[in-house]
Design a protein that fits this description.
This protein is mainly β. It folds into 2 domains: 86 residues, RimM (Elongation Factor Tu (Ef-tu), domain 3), CATH 2.40.30; 62 residues, SH3 type barrels, CATH 2.30.30. The protein is 8% helix and 46% strand. The longest helix has 6 residues. The radius of gyration is 19 Å and the shape is elongated. The termini are far apart. The model has no long low-confidence stretch (mean pLDDT 89).
Length: 173
Amino acid sequence: MADPLLHIGTITGTHGLRGDLKVHPADFGLQILLEIGKVVLSCADGKQVEVEVAKAAPHKHSALLHLKGFEHINSVEHFVNAKLMVAADHLPELDEGEYYWHELEGLQVVDTELGVIGKLVAMLETGAHDIYVVDGDHGEVMIPAVAAFINDIDLHAGQMQVTLPAGLVDLNG
């Protein structure tokens, strides 16, 4: 069975007359858009088109992509609003201890003192660091995604071990 496709960005418009596309990154962030070589465009009409990225560059908070074989604005205008998709095995390799969101989503979060906190359901990006959002018996718990609080991530066991700072979870809530 083929890997499911992951959404890495959305084409928001064209740029110039040479066929460049403005792409807003999804949860994976801008760097993925700059490194990816081949993507599947999931178009508004339901069609999927596999294309090669000839060139990618940062542009404000987005990326400019030029697709191989598409050399004019007229050849790419119909891609506006298409989603850029990629198979997980085509994502760039990460360094040891780094993870993609799709790998972390749904992990059971276990605190060293409180036990099971809940399930990892969202990630918020902030200027300083990401925040993991966990939903469980203690309600919604927001954990800073920093090494001081994250002890271990075991993808095979489906678990994230944490040590929460005092007062982060209101036990009387």
